[in-house]
Amino acid sequence: MRIWDAAPWDREAPTEREAQGLLEFLLSKPLPKPDVIAYVNQSPTINPHVRRKALSLVDHYREETNADAFQKACWAAVRSPYLNPFQYRFALAQAEAACQLAPARLEHQTTLGMAQYRLGHFQDALATLERADAVNKGMPSNLAFLAMARFRLRQEKLASTTLTHLRQTIKEPRWAASEEARGFLAEAEAFVEGMTH
Q1: Do you find a cis peptide bond into 30, omega within 30 degrees of 0?
Q2: Within a 10 A sphere around the Cβ of 196, how many other Cβ atoms?
Q3: In terms of domains, do 176 and 81 share one?
Q4: Domain that holds residue 169
């Protein structure tokens, strides 16, 4: 079977398809619309014609409203110490969106603090992680990033105390089998202790 498209050729069609693909990619990451618009406006790699078309189409697209979708996407990035600033900037936007949509969810606060840390916003990260820890103590991810943020800010004694608390925490039954928790401990130990020896 052959299907023929009888629509007249439109020289704008390739530009529109590229703009649509760009918007679908960014919004499915997911990213909030303001961040999509900022990226489209600022990215030097986007063709100017595609940029104009994308900005004219963006209001026709649905924005993600599920905080868990933003949380899941952000967590996949911030748990890794080896991504680039571009990826962590997307993660920060996702974490901020999750916190706005579900401000009472402490895991979103921890993820936000992790994203801030990954981008080098150590003072912001410390404040965010301390707020989360004050309400929900003993989360390995929170403790690991608290230890590293404190060390970055020259709070060496507090960093060492937090690292000791983390070591004790992951011996608890609910964390003992968690490879992810052990990974956070290994990263914190390598950074805090590696820099002090």
Answers
A1: yes
A2: 10
A3: yes
A4: 70-196
